[in-house]
Design goal:
The chain is an alpha+beta fold. It is 39% helix and 20% strand.
């Protein structure tokens, strides 16, 4: 099974210049805890709700001036939409991430897949992936 068959496709990017409140409101509106950061139609990072709290608020950043670029994770992990679900689960395990961004052949963002998405079709893989990620933390 290809990852394109199970990925979430309504993923939206936010600019690196987006403020903390804009990030938080976008997450609230989309009902997500993870936002890709894109600049000139290219991925440059990701921000999680935890990043907003830990790196932003608890890190002493000014809520009115702090931008996504100030708190984002710059290491972006991704796979192509035509990769096998087991391959993607393996990469998630290797990188110790719970979500993987999915790109088309032109390297444009087309979706995101989570351990939860994988668990719906590959119970054994998702269990091993989650176990390996949580043991590394």
């Amino acid at each position: 099974m290809k990852v394109r068959e199970i990925m979430t496709t309504n993923v939206e990017c936010v600019s690196p210049d987006a403020g903390l409140l804009e990030l938080a409101n976008k997450m609230k509106t989309l009902d997500v805890g993870f936002i890709p950061i894109c600049e000139s139609d290219r991925l440059v990072g990701t921000v999680t709700d935890r990043d907003i709290v830990i790196r932003g608020l608890a890190g002493g950043k000014n809520i009115n001036t702090c931008k996504a670029r100030d708190i984002m994770t710059k290491d972006v992990f991704w796979c192509f939409e035509d990769e096998d679900v087991k391959e993607v689960a393996s990469k998630m395990r290797e990188k110790e991430v719970r979500r993987m961004l999915i790109l088309n052949p032109e390297k444009r963002l087309v979706g995101v897949v989570s351990i939860g998405d994988i668990s719906k079709v590959e119970e054994k893989e998702s269990g091993k992936t989650l176990k390996d990620i949580t043991e590394a933390a």
